[in-house]
């Protein structure tokens, strides 16, 4: 039987049920128990295939930015955990190992029923931690050393968040961030019905959504934001482990609040999470042909029929500058939203997690027929 856990993929479906939103100061009813934690999940920095570009010759050969797991716990009537971790995507294998270890460590109350583990979708981390063949082909199977580091780090971040649980409050803010993402497949977007396209100003989502965590005496606990952009500023030629633009943005945010402590140290935890980033690229100069400098073919993303000649670029002069620029723009917007948040949150915080048996899932077609999504 083939099951896919939606909570294990980069397109996690999360519902944050914020009831009775209002503006103003804190009230006793608005209080939660909240906690945040962070731990290192940087895997083997040499000789391990990297997860993201499915390139068998892209092998780790050093570190650009260390990788982290950032955990946030929200408790009211019950507790829920949100973990954003610098991985290409979540993994059911990792989830099962994390929940097993949490149970062994006396924290079995955090499990599949109330915990989301979300990958930031960086393409520059070590691979070999997935349970499905397709994702382990280029890594030639599982890499136990990487799996152990990821599991230990996620568990440690949740343990920290649990230890840090204290009375607090939540605030919301959102705002538009421009010059940070483009649609990498605008021709495909044009296939959407015109009446649907007319509903939106852009062909990608430009809104950043931020959740602010506040402790006693208005102390800064942390923040989580969701913004649609792929962490692929570091391209497929990169061999350095990196959290990419989202990892760099998180580094800047934590540096701002933790008084220049080393990455991963300090009480403030900043999550820059993946969201609806499907066809959303940070390479805002677009794709062009490396041999001629002209734009790639719009429909096929090729140059003279070759995909290898079509490369996306920008906004900087190389992938390191690209990462810094797009990361800094996300950080600047997140800091603005954090500082100007005015909407207090009350009511339960929750999420929906669903297992789908894809082998037996039938999709209805417009001609009254159905087609199977069977993997067999």
Q: TL;DR of this structure?
A:
With 376 residues, the protein is of the alpha+beta class.
> Counting H and I runs of at least 4 residues, what is the number of helices?
7
The CA-CA distance between the termini, in Å, is: 10 Å
Shape: globular
Task: Report the average pLDDT across residues.
Answer: 89
Q: Roughly how much helix do the residues carry, as a percent range? A: 10-25%
Question: What report would you give on this structure?
Answer:
By secondary structure, this protein is an alpha+beta fold. The protein has one domain (3-284, 317-372). It contains seven helices and 21 strands. The chain has helices spanning 92-104, 133-136, 144-163, 186-189, 194-197, 244-257, 319-340; strands at residues 3-5, 19-23, 32-40, 46-51, 59-61, 68-75, 79-85, 115-119, 125-126, 166-176, 182-183, 207-214, 220-226, 269-273, 280-281, 286-289, 310-313, 343-346, 355-357, 362-364, 370-372. The strands form six sheets. Strands 2, 3, 6, 7, 8, 10, 12, 13, 14 and 18 form a ten-stranded mixed sheet that branches. Strands 5-4-9 form a three-stranded antiparallel sheet, with no helix packed on it. A hairpin with a 5-residue loop joins strand 20 (362-364) and strand 21. The longest helix has 22 residues, at 319-340.
